[in-house]
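Morning, I've got a small favour to ask if you have a moment. I owe you a coffee for this, so here goes:
>
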Amino acid sequence: MTQTQFELLKHQLTLLTPQQLRTLQGEIHHNLDTDQSKLVTDEELQLISSLFS
């Protein structure tokens, strides 16, 4: 997305109702949560745990 397209999108957000903004906010939060990858895999966590037991 170009900077111009992004600025247009931001302007269009001002046209949304509060309910539409809340819905969009929820979608954004969901996308951010699912995009985050685990810092360590389960296997790595088990290995780290075994070092301290």
The helical segments are 3-13, 18-35, 42-51. Residues 3-51 form one domain. Residues 44 and 50 are 10 Å apart (CA to CA).
